[in-house]
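ingest -> validate -> predict -> emit
validate: passed (alphabet ok, no gaps, 692 aa)
predict: started
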Amino acid sequence: MSFCVGSVSAQSLYSEDFENETPINAGDLCEVGNEYSPAFDGNWSLGPACANPGAGTPKLVDITGETWLEYNDSYPADSEVWNSATVDVTSTSNVAVSFDLRSTGSLDAGGGYIDRLEMFAVLDGTQSATPLFSVTGHVNGMNNAGEITVNEDVDVSGASSLALRMVIKLTGADERYQLDDVSMCSDSNGDGVCNECDEPLEIYGDVSDYTVQCADDLPTMPGMVTAERGNLGAVIGAQGINEQEVVYNATPAAGTDNQTDWALKLFNFGDVAGNHVNFVPTAENLQLREYSNGVAILEGQVANEADPSEVFNVHVTYTNLVSGADWPNGFKTANECMIPLLGDASTENWNIYVLEPSQSYLSGEGGLSGSLLTLEHAPDVASGDTLPYFGFQVGEGANDRNCDLGAGGWLTYSGTINGVAVSGSTGDFNVDLTPTPGGRNGNPCVPNDLCTDIIYTVIDTDCPENGALTVTQTVCVADDTDPTFDNAPANVTLECGPLPAVPTVTASDNCTHGAAPVVTYLGQVTTDSTSQFCYTVVRQWTAVDCSGNGIGHTQTIVIQDTQAPTAPDANDYTAECDGAGNVMEFEAWLTSVEGTSTDNCGGSVSYTNNSQYGTTNWTGFDPVCGGSMSKEVIFYAIDECGNFSEGDTATFLIDDTVAPGAPVCENDTVECDGTGNLSDFEMWLTHVEGTS
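emit:
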């Protein structure tokens, strides 16, 4: 995929044409006490020589509709008369300076009255020892009025700021130097021209690496990016799910024909017939990466084997993957591999690609700095065919130099080599391949193991110095979202029970690239148990997806009995006094209520009451017969969960309703004692006690 992008003008650092100035005194900008300071933009200032110019007079003058800054009359030697504003040069290494000069009057280039104009560069506040431009007499070197444009380059490597300073000497009243149209601009390539080629290529838009949650979220199209100039192309390099990343180190293919080994051979290099140059990988390496979607990238760095200072950065994009079994045309192989032109079983597993010209280039460094070559597939596609006769081959014996694992393919190249235009020359990649260890395995469940690369390439053949840029944006799957339960059971409270069976719980994940989340039941714990109808059960589950993201769920089940049993049924009871307190009969009456209550849960019911045998709460308290006494009792029923109900109040009455038996009396005869026998009589009376 490629885009054509327009260009913009190079960045201007400084410009001054002296228009729109409003001097206080057009006749003398240095009038004492009324010196002129440019109020419009502060883009320039008069130098310190202005304060004591002698007979010199600076002014702004109109010459054929253009405003010029003029210095006339007399100035002593080395008079600093003008300074530009300071500009930031941290982002460039070279600045092109341009300005227009005029001169009029009797300016002298020799003798005792030499007139001179010099323009200096001021780097980081320090004036250069040598002027950028210097002239004696008239600016055009002739003995009359003249006008010139000066163009100079300033090396600003390592500097942070730059300003211009003009210094003059004038010796006559009718002598004038005039300045206009001063400019400074970035000239990074040092060709003396400020244009778009001085600006580094840039891709605008977010091309930073990022992650997505799921394999389905991986991009299938490039992002919304642009470039200021050149042709912008993009290709998607996709890795298949659970497919091992395929990356090879590419080294010069070792031939068996006694020729020098090479990774890249460029024929007729520099458009010189017979100048065939071999290139081999530098320490920066050369690698081939094959993607699952039929894209391959060969990139790295190679150097001229004969002159290692001549270096090319390599970026070649191959597309349109066809297996060797399906390739309809020819195969290039070394003779000793004994593979026929149309292939055999050994070529069926080859991968064969076609070079993509819009995204393939060689950009120079070192001795090839400023060189840029664009590449095309060779041979061309013949009329009526859809594929070239030979492709870029990857496989055992595919490098056309030996029978080992390798890659190879022809190309043509065009562009600029050290300023010389070249076109239509041929070349050949021939490399042995060694798989790199490790790498991504394409497992979407492992963070950053399944990725897609978006390779953006900009090529601007009009600007060889800054004419190529490749940026690879890597997008990987990194799922950090927890799964969700589909049917997690809610907390529940049940009256009396029963405890629900453990349900089958399932979960779902935000991604479909792996198996369903694994749900594990961790069991249950019973707490607060007081009976079969009063307890709490806590059940727990976990759900974990293939990326290890997990959640838990806890269900609390409360089994409870909140209803009291029915009230006990008790009746009043009257007991005939037994003379011993009727204890056993009272206790039997108390227990007679048992079994008269029922529980809603069907559990057992226990009973109690508020009685205590004895005198407490009794009406009458004498256990001896001959009267009555009673006790009011409240009965309670209690279920297994502690709920209780209160019955009616019942009364236990002890009464004496039976008359005692008749006393047994016996006759008694006593001897008269002469006093009436009173004591004998009283004793006889007491003999009946205990006989009833």
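Confidence is low (pLDDT under 50) at residues 1-9.
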